[in-house]
Amino acid sequence: xxxPWKPGGNGPRDAFAAFIxxxxxxxxxxxxxxxxxxxxxxxxxxxxxxxxxxLSISASPNILxxxxxxxxxxxNDINALAEVCEPGTVVIAIGQVNDVRLYRDLLASGxxxxxxxxxxxxxxxxxxTHAQGIFSAPKHSDASAAKKHLSxxxxxxxxxxxxxxxxxxxxxxxxTDHKLPTALLxxxxxxxxxxxxxxxxxxxxxxxxxxxxxxxxxxxIERAMIRANDxxxxxxxxxxxxSPLMTDGxxxxxxEEEFRQAFEMTVIDLPRNMLINFPQLLADVNVVVLATxxxxxxxxxxxxILSWLKANAVHAQTIVVTNKxxxxxxxxxxKDFEASIERKIDYVIPYDVKAAxxxxxxxxxxxxxxxxxxxxxxxxxxxxxxxxxTNVEASDPEPRASAAAKKSLLGKLDIKGMLxxxxxxxxxxx
Length: 430
Ligand SMILES: Nc1ncnc2c1ncn2[C@@H]1O[C@H](COP(=O)(O)OP(=O)(O)O)[C@@H](O)[C@H]1O
Ligand SMILES: [Mg+2]
Prior knowledge:
This protein is α/β, with parallel strands linked by helices. It has helices at 23-35, 48-55, 74-84, 100-108, 121-136, 138-141, 163-175, 194-197, 205-211, 218-224, 250-262, 272-277, 296-312, 334-341, 353-362, 366-369, 374-395, 415-420, and strands at residues 16-20, 43-45, 63-67, 90-95, 113-116, 150-156, 182-186, 226-229, 232-235, 265-269, 287-292, 317-325, 347-350.
């Protein structure tokens, strides 16, 4: 789940806890729990809300079973659970709604499994044994060594809105101004500009990774990634346009996983078609920057993508950035745009053709080549907003001391609060 890992701050964690709404299910569960060597008194009567309450004041168990039956809005409540439940905890949900969509959404929000009532002993035994296996797999058992890591995906509502410009700029700023080890993964596999923007050759790394996902490990990424500066490594491709992309997306997920071990920041330039083909890529993304221009087409697709994200990546914070904004020639006003997408635009980057040309000429990212411009200042604001979350986390001195300390990393982005402060126009907006 999402809440920040608190090294050494937790005291011992229980092996197992359950919050179950009805006695019949509890009676089915207790003997299986005893069989697995766990304490039956950890099977509590209650549902998801009780689980959230309990975990907000105590250490998370290794394996948690929660009953969604009494939850009116399971996905939303799971989010509340993610806020208080530490990473590493394997969560199994149970419920009485037989709905594939809910099942998928639950998995996307970090739930390990969903069991349908009425429960039976075999099903419970299988699910719990499997959860035990997942919990003790190496990446979880050595969780104290887990690095803090923040993954940001940049998605454009349509081609040319500047998603790649933002992706390369943010990655550059994270790695230089913020000195954070950063990976830039350019998933525009045929036409990517991640390397080009930095005047680098993409090499064969990403193509090799797609062809042989099983080869992807720490050593592979060390060799295959192109270094842009001491803190920034890039994986990008100019794959042949004579052949379609042959991948089930496993390579990309594996790369994300390796980046989590090797870097503190991952920036993914994620073309919108990749989002549709490989929704699993969003499973561990913390922030989605949705880049858009102020056009009717983009307003429509902003609505569609925001709603997609709500259904498929509830755990991720979304930042809406309009780019290339020319006040004189707006197809749709800011007010109308915001009304139609039913939320505020978080950042507005002005159109600056000179800055774009300058970046291209210098072979530098937009934000780096044009430090004195208003457009670059807004990009820096976005980078600050995203990295603020990691800084707060890193300097948090008293891990489990307060409720505030238990908020998820992304709770700290507080985008809602940011927007609520006043109907404020963020820096750079006109
Ligand atoms: N704020 C801006 N003002 C002017 N040109 C911009 C701006 N942002 C990006 N561009 C230019 O727009 C073009 C498309 O940008 P790109 O980042 O490749 O878009 P996308 O990845 O969304 O297709 C590039 O030539 C880029 O330099
Ligand atoms: Mg692009």
